[in-house]
From TrEMBL:
The keyword Coiled coil applies. The lineage of its organism: Eukaryota, Metazoa, Chordata, Craniata, Vertebrata. GO terms for molecular function: microtubule minus-end binding. Keywords: Coiled coil. One of its GO terms (biological process) is spindle assembly. The gene is haus4. Residues 301-328 form a coiled coil. The keyword Coiled coil applies. This is HAUS augmin-like complex subunit 4. InterPro entries: HAUS4, HAUS4_met. It comes from Stegastes partitus (bicolor damselfish). One of its GO terms (cellular component) is HAUS complex.
């Protein structure tokens, strides 16, 4: 029964590529691509269902509501603290400006009394705040040097001076803050520095709205930059994926056609080396002819050539005779060791016959003489 609403919710988000795009838009911080969602359809459906219960940052609706309330409360307390801090720092700056002014110009006595009363009041108030324990500290802890708030309040200026300072303080503080705002206006728009004070005051009233507008514009640009960064990362991943596919296709084409191309290349290289070898041989022959012409005369070269031809023919005849003798010898070796003894006896008898013939020829020559 629970599968029906879930299917309805998923189908309401879109189908196919539309569903993938909405899932990616719902989870911009996740490092996913459409290919990942296509390969994992069940995970894509899970994310589509989960997108109805969480926001882009991954927070649930209830937690987001509580976080917004806490953020509003924090902003309220922060604004209250900032107002107090701005006033306190403004008073400190006024006191510092008065101290600097005293060393450069003559300050009226009433202003000296005003700033001295303000400084003493601020110092006593700060010391009282340091001595007063807060709500989180132990009320029974010993005070510093045995001092209490009553002891410090005795150091306050005269009451009439304090009352006079309090009556003049709002106006003085307003003048100081106005001067700071005008300085901020001159920094924000330097071309307005030479304008009249009335015109500056009018433009100053719109400065807060302009700054708020600029802040919102900067935040919008920051958000746009973040979205463009996420989009760029996705496009980079897609580009790298397509580039990897192209490289794989190129590798397959190279592997398929490498043998054919290599064969053609080897044939061309072989033809080149054959032609180069033939050229080298012709050059060697040319050098040999030049050496012969430089060393011998034409008649000598012709005679040497004939001698060489005769020697080569005799060498050829000797080789043929050697081959015939080796053939006969191999045929005799087939007969075995018994024929070897007969051959030795035959050789011995031939030697004796040759010796006797030689002796007979010598004896005949001697008788003839």
């Amino acid at each position: 029964m629970s599968a029906g609403p879930e299917t309805t919710n998923i189908s309401s988000l879109g189908k196919g590529d539309g569903l993938h795009q909405q899932v990616l838009a719902s989870f911009p911080l996740c490092d996913m691509t459409e290919e990942d969602l296509t390969l994992n359809p069940q995970f894509c459906k899970l994310l589509a269902t989960l997108a109805q219960h969480v926001d882009k940052t991954g927070l649930t609706v209830q937690l987001k509501t509580e976080l917004d309330k806490a953020e509003q409360k924090l902003q309220s307390q922060r604004s209250h603290w900032l107002r107090s801090e701005i006033l306190h720092r403004g008073l400190q700056e006024m006191s510092q400006d008065h101290c600097v002014r005293k060393h450069h110009t003559i300050v009226p006595p009433d202003q000296n009394m005003f700033y001295e009363t303000m400084q003493k009041s601020m110092l006593v108030a700060q010391c009282v705040r340091q001595l007063d324990p807060s709500n989180t500290t132990n009320q029974d802890q010993p005070s510093v040097l045995g001092l209490t708030s009553q002891h410090l309040m005795e150091l306050m200026p005269l009451e009439k001076n304090v009352q006079r300072m309090r009556r003049s303080l709002p106006h003085q503080l307003e003048m100081h803050l106005k001067e700071k705002c005008l300085s901020l206006l001159s920094y924000y728009q330097p071309e307005w520095e030479n304008e009249s004070e009335g015109l500056k005051t009018i433009k100053l009233s719109h400065l807060s709205a302009q700054l708020d507008k600029e802040k919102k514009r900067a935040e919008s640009l920051k958000e746009t930059c973040r979205e463009n960064t996420v989009l760029l990362q996705r496009q980079t991943q897609l580009y790298l994926s397509e580039l990897t596919k192209c490289i794989q296709l190129l590798q397959s084409l190279i592997l398929d056609h490498r043998l054919k191309i290599q064969t053609d290349l080897d044939g061309k290289k072989l033809d080149y080396f054959e032609g180069k070898c033939e050229l080298v041989l012709q050059k060697i022959k040319t050098e040999m002819v030049e050496i012969q012409l430089d060393t011998y005369k034409v008649d000598s070269i012709s005679a040497h050539r004939k001698i060489r031809e005769k020697l080569e023919s005799e060498l050829k005849a000797c080789k043929a005779e050697k081959q015939a003798v080796e053939l006969k010898l191999s045929s005799f070796e087939i007969l075995g060791k018994e024929f070897e003894s007969l051959a030795e006896e035959y050789c011995r008898l031939r030697q004796e016959i040759e010796m006797k013939n030689w002796a007979l020829k010598e004896f005949t020559k001697y008788n003839d003489k």
